């Protein structure tokens, strides 16, 4: 028995045409926005890598740990802790200062320089610590935010980005009590610090910057949580070797 199949004809009305065109425009706009966002991501990653390359160069050229005894004496003079009033030492001081702290300037012409190197072997952190903090310098390396000179009495506060990867201070939130870091200063001294407290605070909470350390050497590492809504505070204290 033969069956006759009847297909109902669909008429394309002006309303359907408008909807079809709207969906096409919406689709192409979505593709365009995805491309723009992806381009921004690629550029941001390129900018980060480029800035980090500067930080790596600074680290490679800032090996304070290789200072000789003679250089340590001269560098002590540079920092003003001794008073050697001889022309020879003055000349050596100027040469060493130029060698260890070359003049580097940011995009606005403001000078900065490495004041120490920080190493946290557990999370593969090894960077130069820069002399001051700015948005530009934070893309290059961790920076000094507050406190004394490296390895001196007080609370040296160091800030670094959390890019949610292996760079800068991204892995600092994973540290646990008892973990250690090494800080080598411009005199060639390396001191080991032990993590004794870690917590999160709101961005406007400044208590972690307190310099009341009861005469001890401390380091405070500051970075963002993965969400960026809070700050991770990691407090280290000089580890006594018995």
Q: What labels would you give this structure?
A:
alpha+beta, 3 domains, Sortase, Chain: A, two-stranded antiparallel sheet, single chain, 4 helices, 8-stranded mixed beta sheet, elongated, 242 residues
Structure description:
There is one protein chain. By secondary structure, the chain is an alpha+beta fold. The chain folds into three domains: 15-60; 61-102, no CATH class; 109-242, Sortase, Chain: A (Beta Barrel), CATH 2.40.260. Helices cover 31% and strands 25% of the residues. The chain is built from four helices and ten strands, in the order αααββββαββββββ. The strands form two sheets. It has an eight-stranded mixed beta sheet. Helix 2 (69-78) crosses helix 3. The longest helix has 47 residues, at 14-60.
CATH topology of the largest domain: Sortase, Chain: A
Judged by helices, strands and strand pairing, the structural class is alpha+beta
Q: Largest sheet, order of strands side by side?
A: 4-3-7-8-10-9-6-5
Oligomer: single chain
Mean pLDDT: 79
Enumerate how many helices there are, as a single number. 4
Residue runs with pLDDT of under 50 for 5 or more positions = 68-86
The CATH superfamily of the largest domain turns out to be Sortase
Number of strands: 10
Indicate the radius of gyration in whole angstroms. Answer: 28 Å
Task: Spell out the blueprint of helices and strands.
Elements: H1 14-60, H2 69-78, H3 87-100, E1 104-105, E2 111-112, E3 114-120, E4 125-130, H4 135-138, E5 143-146, E6 154-159, E7 180-185, E8 190-201, E9 217-224, E10 231-238
Parallel strand pairs: 6-9
Antiparallel strand pairs: 1-2, 3-4, 3-7, 5-6, 7-8, 8-10, 9-10
């Amino acid at each position: 028995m033969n069956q006759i199949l009847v297909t109902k004809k669909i008429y394309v009305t002006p309303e359907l045409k408008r909807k079809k065109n709207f969906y096409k425009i919406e689709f192409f706009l979505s593709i365009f926005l995805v491309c723009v966002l992806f381009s921004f991501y690629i550029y941001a990653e390129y900018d980060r890598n480029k800035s980090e390359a500067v930080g790596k160069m600074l680290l490679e050229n800032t090996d304070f740990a290789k200072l000789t005894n003679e250089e340590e004496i001269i560098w002590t003079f540079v920092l003003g802790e001794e008073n050697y009033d001889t022309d020879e030492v003055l000349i050596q001081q100027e040469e060493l200062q130029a060698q260890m702290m070359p003049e580097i300037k940011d995009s606005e012409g403001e000078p900065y320089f490495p004041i120490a190197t920080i190493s946290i072997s557990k999370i593969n952190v090894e960077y130069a610590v820069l002399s001051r903090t700015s948005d530009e310098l934070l893309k290059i390396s961790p920076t000094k935010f507050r406190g004394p000179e490296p390895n001196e009495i007080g609370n040296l506060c160091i800030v670094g980005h959390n890019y949610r990867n292996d760079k800068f201070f991204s892995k600092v939130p994973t540290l646990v009590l008892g973990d250690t870091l090494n800080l080598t200063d411009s005199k060639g001294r390396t001191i080991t610090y032990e993590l004794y407290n870690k917590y999160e605070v709101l961005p406007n909470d400044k208590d972690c910057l307190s310099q009341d350390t009861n005469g001890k050497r401390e380091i405070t590492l500051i970075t963002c949580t993965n969400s960026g809504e809070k700050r991770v505070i990691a407090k280290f204290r000089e580890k006594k070797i018995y």
